[in-house]
């Protein structure tokens, strides 16, 4: 029994030894093959994947790499230059630099920098950590000082935009200034090319040319009207940049920029300056609210000068608060033109055939009643011929002539000469003026229309009408663009009639007329004064006036028509407030344009002793 038990234990131990004994060589070889098969398969998969990515789908990695180092930059188009008729630049764009910041990148870099600094404290000898330290300037106070901004304001701006990728720090810095700031390597601060509009002759031209906003878009004047032509079209360039955004290489020109179109004005900057200078002097001397003038080449319709006082400086962003000074009054402001309408009314009367140059009108006793409205002259001029009505500026005389004609005659003729409609200039905000509708053409309105009340006009419209008279009745559309050739005109009035009225207007400048101060040595001048009461709260004021003078020179071969308007002068009469401005400006204009004299110069009288 005992032997059987021992034999059973021995069998168990033998069986257990068989389980743990070393495997055979065949088993080891089988395991080796399985292991190397797995390794080979793994490498085959890697090779296949690499082949797929680098050969079959190589653009994937290329796009990933490009996304990290390639950027598409905008090539800003240069805004076109605005020049005067002689090529003098009046509006140009100069290269500038905007500085911008990436706040998100800045705060990430700050956090990374602090983390490396902390590790350096634990391992101060680590060369690897020292190499990882950023070599940029994180000091926002120093950045604020460099760009000239308030420290607290800049820190708040950056802190409030922590997740933003783009904020403007400073706009339109001169490139040398921007270069100095960027050399201080402020963290996440980058340059951006820009342009700044500059106006070399600011005040005289500001109300015509206007200005652009900080994005380079025209918002006033011709900058706005011609914005599409001046702007051009931006281009695109693919460039390679490093981590800090520095431009390393231009890779590909995607689209070239198209510069804005250059524009040449009909304006002569020399005449523009002279006109502004004299308007300024007259405005100050007369303690006026404003003074405006327009000068037109009657042969072409080109506006040679047009400006107003007071004006503004578009180069000074802080000087754009006076919106009244920014108005181009010659095109925008409407007013009752007063007695400057009398020559136009006389043209209509002579054209009707009912009136001839040698006809007379009895203006006694110097006033007349129409309904409950009294029309008066400054004096009782008695019986006046057609010339006398213009020379003495008789309201009674011209009103009687107007009332002798069908009521539609005067307003219809005015419309033919451009009153009551915008000119061809199409200046932004240009007023159309106002002629009452035909249902209101009654006896009172027609009478007052004849001497410049009951209708509204702009200085441009008055200048256009006088230019037509000066050009033998041929009208040319007014323009602010320099013309390469004289456009075809439209014959609106019989030349014989215009010559007759021009002769009448010449008498206004001669002794006994109302505008002797408009005379110019060596030139024959024709014109008409105007003194118009201003409407205040629906009634004509007894203290506020508008003084006007519209004139033409030289009479023998007219070249320039000019209109001068002075608002609220101390001396209310057009012959005293506006005519002297005309004389000074027209004299220098004719000289600069080399217009020949058409009468003898007035020589000083010599005493017998001399």
Automatic annotation (TrEMBL):
The cellular location(s) given in this protein's UniProt record come to: Cell inner membrane; Membrane
Which Pfam family is one of those matched by this entry? PBP_dimer
List the active-site residues: 339 (acyl-ester intermediate)
Record pathway: Cell wall biogenesis; peptidoglycan biosynthesis
**Which reactions is this enzyme annotated as catalysing?**
Preferential cleavage: (Ac)2-L-Lys-D-Ala-|-D-Ala. Also transpeptidation of peptidyl-alanyl moieties that are N-acyl substituents of D-alanine
Gene Ontology CC = plasma membrane
Q: Some GO term, biological process aspect, for this entry: which one?
A: division septum assembly
Known InterPro entries for this protein? Answer: Beta-lactam/transpept, Beta-lactam/transpept-like, FtsI_transpept, PBP_dimer, PBP_dimer_sf, PCN-bd_Tpept
The family database entries (Gene3D superfamilies) matched by this protein are listed as: 1.10.150.770, 3.30.450.330, DD-peptidase/beta-lactamase superfamily (3.40.710.10), Penicillin-binding protein 2a (Domain 2) (3.90.1310.10)
Residues covered by the Penicillin-binding protein transpeptidase domain: 292-587
HAMAP family, sorted:
FtsI_transpept (MF_02080)
The task this protein performs is described as: Catalyzes cross-linking of the peptidoglycan cell wall at the division septum.
Name of the protein this chain belongs to: Peptidoglycan D,D-transpeptidase FtsI
């Amino acid at each position: 029994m005992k032997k059987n038990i021992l034999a059973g234990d021995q069998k168990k131990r033998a069986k257990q030894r068989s389980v743990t004994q070393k495997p055979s060589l065949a088993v080891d070889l089988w395991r080796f093959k399985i292991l190397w098969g797995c390794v080979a398969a793994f490498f085959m998969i890697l090779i296949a994947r690499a082949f797929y990515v680098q050969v079959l789908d190589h653009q994937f990695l290329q796009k990933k790499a490009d996304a990290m180092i390639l950027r598409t930059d905008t090539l800003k188009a240069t805004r076109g230059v605005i020049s005067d008729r002689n090529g003098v630049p009046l509006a140009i764009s100069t290269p500038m630099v905007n500085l911008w910041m990436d706040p998100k990148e800045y705060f990430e870099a700050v956090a990374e920098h602090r983390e490396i600094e902390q590790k350096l404290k634990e391992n101060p000898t680590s060369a690897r950590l020292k190499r990882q330290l950023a070599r940029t300037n994180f000091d926002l106070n120093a950045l604020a000082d460099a760009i000239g901004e308030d420290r607290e304001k800049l820190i708040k701006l950056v802190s409030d935009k922590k997740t933003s990728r783009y904020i403007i720090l400073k706009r339109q810095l001169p490139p040398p200034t921007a270069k100095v700031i960027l050399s201080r390597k402020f963290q996440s601060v980058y340059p951006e090319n820009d342009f700044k509009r500059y106006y070399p002759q600011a005040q005289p031209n500001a109300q015509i040319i206007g200005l652009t906003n900080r994005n380079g878009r025209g918002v006033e004047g011709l900058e706005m009207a011609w914005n599409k032509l001046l702007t051009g079209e931006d281009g695109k360039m693919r460039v390679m940049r490093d981590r800090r955004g520095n431009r390393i290489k231009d890779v590909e020109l995607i689209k070239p920029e198209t510069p804005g179109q250059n524009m040449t004005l009909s304006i002569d900057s020399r005449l523009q300056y002279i006109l502004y200078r004299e308007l300024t002097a007259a405005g100050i001397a007369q303690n006026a609210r404003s003074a405006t003038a327009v000068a037109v080449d009657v042969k072409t319709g080109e506006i040679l000068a047009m400006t107003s006082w007071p004006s503004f400086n578009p180069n000074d962003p802080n000087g754009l608060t006076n919106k009244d000074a920014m108005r181009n009054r010659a095109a925008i402001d409407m007013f009752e033109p007063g007695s400057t309408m009398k020559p136009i009314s006389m043209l209509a009367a002579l054209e009707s055939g009912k009136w001839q140059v040698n006809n007379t009108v009895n203006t006694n006793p110097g006033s007349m009643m129409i309904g409950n409205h009294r029309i008066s002259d400054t004096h009782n001029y008695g019986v006046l011929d057609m010339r006398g009505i213009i020379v003495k500026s008789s309201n009674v005389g011209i009103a009687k002539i107007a009332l002798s004609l069908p009521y539609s005659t005067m307003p219809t003729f005015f419309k033919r000469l451009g009153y009551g409609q915008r000119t061809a200039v199409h200046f932004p905000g240009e007023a159309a003026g106002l002629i009452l509708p035909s249902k209101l053409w009654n006896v009172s309105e027609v009478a007052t229309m004849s001497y410049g009340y009951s209708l509204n006009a702009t200085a441009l419209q008055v200048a256009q009408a006088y230019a037509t008279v000066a050009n033998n009745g041929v009208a040319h559309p007014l323009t602010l663009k320099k013309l390469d050739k004289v456009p075809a005109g439209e014959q609106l009035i019989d030349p014989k009639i215009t010559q007759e009225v021009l002769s009448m207007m010449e008498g206004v400048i001669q002794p006994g007329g109302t505008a002797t101060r408009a005379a110019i040595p060596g030139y024959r001048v024709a014109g008409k004064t105007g003194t118009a009461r201003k409407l205040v709260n629906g009634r004509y004021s007894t203290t506020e006036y508008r003084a006007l003078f519209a004139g033409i020179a030289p009479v023998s071969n007219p070249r320039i028509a000019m209109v001068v308007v002075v608002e609220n002068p101390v001396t209310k009469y057009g012959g005293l407030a506006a005519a002297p401005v005309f004389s000074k400006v027209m004299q220098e204009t004719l000289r600069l344009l080399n217009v020949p004299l058409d009468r003898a110069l007035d020589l000083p009288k010599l005493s017998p002793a001399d």
